[in-house]
Amino acid sequence: MRMYDLITKKKQGEELSSQEIAFMVEGYTKGEIPDYQMSAMCMAICFKGMSHRETADLTQCMAQSGAQVDLSPLGGLTVDKHSTGGVGDKTTLVAEPMAAACGLTVAKMSGRGLGFTGGTIDKLESIPGFRTDLSQQEFFNVVKQAGIAVVGQSADLAPADKKMYALRDVTATVDSIPLIASSIMSKKLAAGASVIELDVKCGSGAFMQDRDQAELLAKTMVEIGCRNGRDTSAWITNMDQPLGYAIGNSIEVNEAIETLQGNGPEDLKELCVCLCAGAFSTAKNIPLDVARERALQVLNDGSALQKFRQMVAAQGGDLEWVDHPEKREKAAVCLEVKAPADGYITHMDTAAVGVASMLTGAGRETKESTIDPLAGILLIKKTGDFAAAGETIAKVYASDTAKAQAGGNKLLSAISWGDKPAPHIPLILGHITAE
Ligand code: URA
User: How far is CA 125 from CA 268, 362, 375, in A?
Assistant: First the structure.
């Protein structure tokens, strides 16, 4: 078999066989197929697409290219969740303890932030003492003890994806549904959970700006999961403004804890209820409305908060920090951003809000940048809200005034104003289950 012939075949729009896909992924992972041939293949896939069968095969080969976590010693149904990324998305910190409180086993591997905001691991590490670098045995022990653990993704998971993603990033071949879907799902398959709940975002702060594309991506990932024997479902959700009010690391954990205490923002609570209910309904094969009632119950009766506390304690985190917000360290500088004139916020360029939070120090500008856990932006007003001239619309936290000002200026430039409220955009746009 020759890679040249496979590129030609895909260029002509033909379907690659399972053996051909395995040859390509194995050869590329071992370094036998050079970057330039794989780039040509990725470009051909961008133009000609892949069938569901090809996409599922590609995902499986990438998942099998490195370590595969066997969660069977934990017994029962193991749940994982993935969000395609957004600004202010702290749902893992709320929805996963809820799932654990519903009786599901949550053994989750998460990433650090790749774009302008921190990832779940960065957020959790803002809790003093919280360890995310557990060995497999420690990881399993925490899950057995607390019913939930969230740890950093092991470096040897899906190495084929790591190589291909780096290549796609520099060859303008990221935006292909089969390539995105196989990339995300290869890591989910390798991480071993039997139930996978997906949150596919669309809007100005999302990877997928367009709703139809988001729906196609969600359907493709659900199909891949199900073809590989994982119970998979997906929500399509709006990312045309940040989720909740907090964007940063420590301040997002704070908002997540408030939500678990029953005091969080409505949009965050609603999405977490959907994610937990979706996983519970899929795992137990029960109607979504029944699962939703259970999700609300564990949030309202405090059992999800207890699961979160158990996880923090089992992973070495400081429970005093969790229970006493008044004792937490604050950023050195807090700058108030004021409304320039009377008006309604009609739109937030959410990607730009993400950049604003990065400028405060809450995200990474380059892979090597270190995150300031105390930095970030706390919105006071969001789309649809009225603000009078000079009224505070956000607080910007940073380690120095220059960073706070850079974040504040970027935030102001991301906001559009009008003299009438903008039409309300629903948060939950769709739910995709296996056909
Ligand atoms: N996230 C991934 O993990 N892979 C992609 O291709 C895009 C987003």
Answer: 21, 13, 14
Closest C-alpha residue for ligand 1 atom 6: 180
Residue 312 has pLDDT above 70, yes or no: yes
**Ligand 1 atom closest to Cα of residue 184:** 3
Q: Is pLDDT above 80 for 112?
A: no
The span from the CA of 50 to the CA of 16, in Å, is 8
pLDDT tens, position by position, 320-369: 999 999 999 999 999 999 999 999 999 999 999 999 999 999 998 777 77
CB-based contact 78:106 (threshold 8 Å) = yes
Helices (runs of H) and strands (runs of E) counted in the chain:
17, 13
Is 347 an active-site residue? no
**Distance from residue 213's CA to the centre of ligand 1 (Å):** 14
Whole-model pTM?
0.93
All structural domains of the chain: 3-49 (1.20.970.10), 72-155+178-323 (3.40.1030.10), 330-418 (3.90.1170.30)
Judge whether 403 counts as a catalytic residue.
Answer: no
Q: Which mutation among 83, 174, 199 tests ligand 1's pocket best, with the greatest number of atoms within 8 A of CB?
A: 174
| 183 Cβ below 6 A of ligand 1 | yes
Q: Please say if 161 is a catalytic residue.
A: yes
Confidence of residue 57 (pLDDT cuts 50, 70, 90): very high
